[in-house]
Amino acid sequence: MNIYEKKKTKKSVETYKIYTSKVLKRVYPNIDIFSKSMDIINNLINGILRSLLRNILD
């Protein structure tokens, strides 16, 4: 890599997977969840929060 190339930086993405898994483990301690299901729940939470913020700001 020479001095003229830019380094690619990762975009920070807010995830709630840790919090969701902690809550699910407390409610259902013997049940595991697939990563695809966790992605769907994370997208749902992000959508809800985005719409709440949009309604608050309008």
TrEMBL record:
- Single GO molecular function: DNA binding
Check the record and name the Gene3D superfamilies matching this protein: Histone, subunit A
Q: What InterPro entries does this protein map onto? A: Histone-fold (IPR009072), Histone_H2B (IPR000558)
GO CC entries:
nucleosome
Task: Please state which protein family the record places this protein in.
Answer: Belongs to the histone H2B family.
| Official protein name in the record | Histone H2B
Name the species this protein comes from.
Capsicum annuum
Lineage, highest ranks first: Eukaryota, Viridiplantae, Streptophyta, Embryophyta, Tracheophyta
